[in-house]
C-alpha cells in the first residue's frame, strides 16, 4: 500500500498558509491592476489593451479573495469553486503574460521615445487625455531593465498561481478525506 503524504510540498501549514498565500496574490494583483489602469497607456498603445490586462489582474485578485473566504470559512462549496476556477485563471494569465511580453518588445521604440521626450505619452495613445507622465524611475532604469522586470514578475505571478491551485486542491482533498469520516453522530468520532 502506498504511503500518503499529507504535508508534501507545503511551505506553510496548509489552511493558514494558503490563506496567507492568497492574501499575497490578492494584494499584488490589485496593486498591479491599478498600476496598469493608471500607467498602462505608457507601455501599451492600443486603446483597450492596458484595461484588459488590468482587468485580468483584478480578476485574479477576485479569485484569490474568494479563495481566502473559502479557506477562512472552511467552505466546501467555495473551495470546490476555487479549485474549478484556478486552472482557467492560470491559462488566461499565461496567455496574458505571453501577449504582454510580445507587445512590450514590439513597443520598445515608442517607450524609449516617451522617456526621451520628458515622459509624455506616445502620440497614438494620446487619445487618453491624461495629464500624468511616465514615472521617471522607469526611464532612468532603461527599457531592458523594465522588460526584464515585467518578464520576471509575470513568471513569478504564474508560479504563485500554480502553487495557490496546488494548495486549494490539497485543501479540497483534505476536506474530502475528513468528510468521509464519521462525525459525532451514529457511532461517535471516527467510529472508535
Automatic annotation (TrEMBL):
What is the top-level taxon of the source organism? Eukaryota
Q: Which residues cross the membrane?
A: 12-37, 52-72, 84-102, 150-172
What keywords are annotated for this sequence in UniProt?
Membrane, Transmembrane, Transmembrane helix
- What name has this protein been given in UniProt? MARVEL domain-containing protein
Q: Which organism is it from?
A: Jaapia argillacea MUCL 33604
Amino acid at each position: 500500500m502506498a504511503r500518503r503524504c499529507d504535508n508534501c510540498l507545503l511551505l506553510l501549514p496548509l489552511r493558514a498558509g494558503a490563506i496567507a498565500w492568497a492574501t499575497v496574490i490578492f494584494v499584488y494583483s490589485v496593486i498591479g491592476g491599478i498600476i496598469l489602469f493608471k500607467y498602462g497607456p505608457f507601455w501599451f498603445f492600443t486603446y483597450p489593451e492596458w484595461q484588459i490586462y488590468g482587468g485580468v489582474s483584478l480578476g485574479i485578485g477576485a479569485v484569490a479573495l474568494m479563495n481566502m473566504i473559502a479557506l477562512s470559512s472552511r467552505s466546501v462549496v467555495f473551495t470546490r469553486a476555487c479549485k474549478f476556477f484556478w486552472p482557467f485563471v492560470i491559462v488566461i494569465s499565461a496567455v496574458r503574460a505571453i501577449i504582454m511580453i510580445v507587445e512590450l518588445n514590439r513597443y520598445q521604440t515608442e517607450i524609449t521615445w516617451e522617456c526621451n521626450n520628458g515622459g509624455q505619452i506616445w502620440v497614438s495613445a494620446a487619445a487618453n487625455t491624461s495629464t500624468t507622465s511616465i514615472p521617471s524611475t522607469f526611464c532612468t532604469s532603461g527599457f531592458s531593465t523594465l522588460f526584464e522586470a515585467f518578464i520576471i514578475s509575470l513568471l513569478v505571478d504564474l508560479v504563485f498561481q500554480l502553487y495557490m491551485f496546488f494548495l486549494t486542491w490539497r485543501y479540497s482533498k483534505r476536506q474530502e478525506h475528513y468528510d468521509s469520516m464519521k462525525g459525532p453522530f451514529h457511532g461517535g468520532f471516527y467510529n472508535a
